[in-house]
Amino acid sequence: MADEFAQLVPETSHHSRPHADHDFSPRCPFCVIARTYNPTSPSAAEGNPGLNPEQLDPPSFVLYSSEHIIAFLDIMPLTRGHVLVAPRKHRIKVGDLSPDEGAEIGRVLPLLSRAIMKAVMPNIPHQQVDYNVVQNNGPGAAQVVPHVHFHIVPRPPLNYVTPKRSTPMAKTQYPANAQPTGFNRTRVLFGRGPRDDLDYEDSAVLVEDMRRCIREEWERSSAGTREASVDQDQRSMGNSESRKCVWKV
């Protein structure tokens, strides 16, 4: 039975159900991925055998795995580096998310977006890259797999060439993407376009780059949070009025 459940076959129901009685669906591909890959700290994700893509068939390239959230490469990407961010538990629509799940998605989406763009377009600053963050609810809104997921879709310049790994990452100037018009504007807005099967060999390299970039962003974010906390504590220690405010809170 385990082999049968490991087949990533989308289910057909899009009806929301209460949390308690439907945290896992064995026929949901995202539930299968979440149950296969345990939470892993970003500092320990690179080269971690617990995140081996071949634990499932087809392989699942997981780049982020926490208590509530899991992120992995889309098996039919719109562009190179197309990532799905989903809750671990089987939530069908955004309105089904628990407060903790919603809060963690809100916290990690900016970090993952920065890290993914850095891995996919390493020689373009984040301020200059284009990408979609798209989320659909229900078949009428183009949701294919009935499990909440956010698409992060890189939109590299039309003439973009991924630098070789041995190439120094000097910033390269690329013309900005042209503003789409008419029907093309709608297609880009909703993340539509031609989709190809995932390139497994390239994905094995790319997911490691993404894990590295996530670790760097995570460590930078954690260091900034600690620094701000220490700074606030020091100000409070040196100011009696600040100490009063802290105690009142």
UniProtKB/TrEMBL annotation:
**To which species is this protein native?**
Exophiala oligosperma
Compositional bias, Basic and acidic residues, is annotated for 12-21
Annotated region Disordered: the residues are 1-21, 219-245
Per its UniProt record, what Pfam families does this chain match? HIT (PF01230)
Q: What is the official name of this protein in its record?
A: HIT domain-containing protein
Catalytic residues in the record: 149 (tele-amp-histidine intermediate)
Biological process (GO) annotations held by this record are: nucleotide metabolic process
Q: Where is this motif: Histidine triad motif?
A: 147-151
Question: What range(s) does the HIT domain occupy?
Answer: 49-162
A single GO molecular-function term is: catalytic activity
Q: Kindly list the residue ranges recorded as spanning the membrane.
A: none
